[in-house]
């Protein structure tokens, strides 16, 4: 378990328990005391994990009763969350692998500099990865790390970039601003994706910030149309 963010690991495990039916819709989660003993953590850590479950539409708090599992259709791709592909792969039980196509320090493309509000000529670490689902090339992930990050080994990028940045480099990744569009295929879509006659892809563009509000990453994930439904969960405040 990640010692730095125990509550997030607990959140992922409880979310998986809910998704797999260990805790069916309409049932109560175990009490905070029981969960604290299960994971050998404090009740405060459990509360933080429960807040994530609440915010992501997995549970509802009932006064005097506890946390009840919400009956709703699970989405395939979290629009509102900031989730790494490895975390998504785990929570959705995906048969998935990753291949690095490009990993180099270069000048940030002008269109991305404009989107991120950065000056033209800014340097970055540019990464292109293909995500394979059920052995088919389904997603192209472009990542541009905008700070002065040293080169990152392909083996790390094929496992988990965020796990490396958070656990090894001490990054405090906090939030992202996202834009979702449907766009015509580009040359690299045609080259790397198994398209089955598609003419467009779903594109999720994100600017990602650290806890201190530093913009450190621009991402662009290009998804085959038939593989993901983008559904959000809304809670009235």
Automatic annotation (TrEMBL):
Record key words, sorted: DNA-binding, Transcription, Transcription regulation
InterPro entries membership: Bact_HTH_transcr_reg, Chorismate_lyase_/UTRA_dom_sf, TreR, Tscrpt_reg_HTH_GntR, UTRA, WH-like_DNA-bd_sf, WH_DNA-bd_sf
Protein name: Trehalose operon repressor
NCBIfam families per the UniProt record, alphabetical: trehalos_R_Bsub (TIGR02404)
Domain HTH gntR-type: start-end pairs: 4-72
Organism: Listeria swaminathanii
Claim: DNA-binding is one of the keywords in the record: yes
């Amino acid at each position: 378990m990640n010692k730095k963010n125990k509550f997030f690991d607990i959140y992922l495990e409880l979310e998986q328990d809910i998704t797999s039916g260990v805790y069916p819709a309409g049932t109560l989660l175990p009490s905070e005391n029981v969960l604290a003993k299960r994971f050998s953590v404090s009740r405060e850590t459990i509360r933080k994990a429960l807040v994530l479950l609440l915010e992501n539409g997995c549970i509802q708090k009932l006064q005097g009763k506890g946390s009840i599992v919400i009956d709703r259709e699970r989405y395939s791709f979290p629009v509102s969350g900031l989730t790494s592909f490895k975390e998504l792969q785990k929570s959705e039980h995906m048969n998935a692998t990753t291949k690095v196509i490009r990993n180099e320090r270069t000048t940030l493309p002008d269109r991305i500099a404009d989107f991120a509000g950065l000056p033209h000529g800014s340097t970055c670490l540019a990464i292109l990865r293909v995500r394979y689902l059920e052995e088919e090339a389904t997603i192209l992930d472009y990542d541009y790390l905008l700070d002065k990050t040293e080169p990152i080994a392909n083996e790390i990028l094929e496992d988990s970039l965020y796990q490396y940045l958070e656990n090894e480099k001490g990054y405090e990744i906090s939030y992202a601003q996202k834009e979702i569009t449907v766009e015509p295929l580009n040359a690299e879509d045609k080259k790397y994706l198994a398209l089955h006659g598609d003419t467009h892809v779903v594109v999720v563009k994100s600017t990602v910030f650290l806890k201190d509000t530093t913009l450190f990453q621009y991402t662009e994930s290009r998804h085959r149309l038939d593989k993901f439904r983008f559904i959000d969960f809304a809670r009235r405040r």
